[in-house]
Structure formats: structure tokens, C-alpha cells
Amino acid sequence: MSAAMETPAMPEDEADASGAHPIFANAPRSVEFNKLRKRLIRNVREALDKFAMVRPGEKWLIALSGGKDSYGLLALLLDLKWRGLLPVELLACNLDQGQPNFPKHILPEFLTGLGIEHRIEYQDTYSIVTDKLPAGATYCSLCSRLRRGNLYRIAREEGCSALVLGHHRDDSLETFFMNLFHGGKLAAMPPKLVNDEGDLEVLRPLIYCAEEDLQRFSDAMAFPIIPCDLCGSQDGLQRNVTKAMLTDMEKAMPGRKDVMIRALGNINPSHMLDPRLFDFAGLSIQPKE
């Protein structure tokens, strides 16, 4: 396997250069949108470089749910690839999980119309979730596990080395606080991991991207959004409570989310309480001569 690669430098005005992937054909030409696009591209490239995600010649499976984050992920990666800055093959994949009233035509028409390589897979995990869980239970955990297992299978079938997900900065922070408050541990969403079988990587190139930026990007690009009626409509989820807390914190102290995501990459083990990470037993004073 080839060594990790740092992507080439891109001039600050490169995002305004003539020519772009067809997904940007109807994108706004405003200064505001160009600034937003540059910022998101810069965030993605920082994650790709810092966490050594790119190995030239490999193939990535891009999980596409039809939500704003996965659309943004696909568009930004296609943008980088179009400019010769992402030397990997991209395959978009939507897993139709059999949810009632799921609009099956939207993603195939969108992807085919833009000439984007893709695979649409149908697996009725919705019936499994509703059969195994009582009415009123939270579906997210089981639904996510079933979806991830199918995506791993598809990645193997397609010869992909990595499954690429659209989790962003806010997702990682919410996970961190949920683990802190409810799990009694310090852990967030990792930008890069290897699955339990050891044969696939999971990558999160949007890990430094703000959800607010991705929402503005999605609105400007007019993506055909497919709402998640299975889990998105459930009230009272711990994640929703945590999201509201972080939103209030950001309103009271603007910029805190950016500070917190940077803090997750600036850890001092000797100032924590975990002897597995720091040899407290080995600490000793030096006798005076």
C-alpha cells in the first residue's frame, strides 16, 4: 500500500477558477458563496492532510443519505478531485433502508444527471428496527449499526479501501459531550479509524466543517434534500438535548465550537486522570545534590 500523501497546495483564489465539476453548474456566483466554498474546502483539505487520509489510486465509497451533510461531502470531494487535488476514485452510494414514503427516484436522477458514479442499494433494515424495538424506543443506534454493516459489505464488493462519512464538527462535539455526560469517558468521533475486521478505513473529511456552513452550502446549492423520517422526527433524543446546549453556548460565547474542536487535538495527558495515558507512577522528584 502506498504511503499517505499530502495534497498539493491550492492558491487562495483557486476556488474561483474557471471550470468546475457539473455539480456546481447552478451554484451561486456571489462573493459570499465563494468565501463559504473556500472555507469548507480549506477545512476538508486540513482534515485530509492532518489525518493522512489520502493514498493515491485508492477507491472511496461515499455514503450518501440525501441529507445536507452527505451532499456537501460529495460536492466538496468532487470539487477537489476535479482540480486534481484528490487522487482517489469516488463512488457515491445510497442505502435505501425501506423507510415508508422514501422517494426512491431523487438520488438516482440527481446522480445520473450529473454523471456521478454511484450505486443504489436496497436493504429493508427499517422493518428489522421496528420489529426488534418497542414502540416509542429510539431507533438511531440499531439503525446506524445495520446501515454501517451494509455499507462495509458494499465497500468490499466495490473494491473500496475506505467508507467516507459526512459527520462534521458539531457531530463530533455532540458525541464528545454525550460520552462525557452519559458514558463517563472522554471520546469524540475520530476523523479516521479502521473497522473491527481490519480491512476498511472509515474517514470523516468534514470533521472541521461547521454544521451551519454546511447548511448554508446546501441551501445555496439547492440539493434535493431527503429528510430522515425514521430518526430525525424523534423528540427527546440525548443528542438533540446536547445539540441545544452547544447552540446556547455558541450564542452566549461566539466561537466556542471552533475552540472546542481544536481542543480535541490539543490534549495534555499529564493533566488528565488516566494512568493508562500517563505514567504517574514513574513521576519522582530529583534528589538535590
TrEMBL record:
Its cofactor is Mg(2+); [4Fe-4S] cluster. It holds the Pfam family ATP_bind_3. GO terms for cellular component: cytoplasm. Keywords: 4Fe-4S, ATP-binding, Cytoplasm, Iron, Iron-sulfur, Magnesium, Metal-binding, Nucleotide-binding, RNA-binding, Transferase, tRNA processing, tRNA-binding. InterPro entries: Rossmann-like_a/b/a_fold, TilS/TtcA_N, tRNA_Cyd_32_2_STrfase, tRNA_thiolation_TtcA_Ctu1. GO terms for biological process: tRNA thio-modification. A motif (PP-loop motif) lies at residues 65-70. It catalyses: cytidine(32) in tRNA + S-sulfanyl-L-cysteinyl-[cysteine desulfurase] + AH2 + ATP = 2-thiocytidine(32) in tRNA + L-cysteinyl-[cysteine desulfurase] + A + AMP + diphosphate + H(+). Binds 1 [4Fe-4S] cluster per subunit. The cluster is chelated by three Cys residues, the fourth Fe has a free coordination site that may bind a sulfur atom transferred from the persulfide of IscS. Catalyzes the ATP-dependent 2-thiolation of cytidine in position 32 of tRNA, to form 2-thiocytidine (s(2)C32). The sulfur atoms are provided by the cysteine/cysteine desulfurase (IscS) system. Belongs to the TtcA family. NCBIfam families: PRK10696.1 (NF007972). This is tRNA-cytidine(32) 2-sulfurtransferase. It comes from Devosia elaeis.
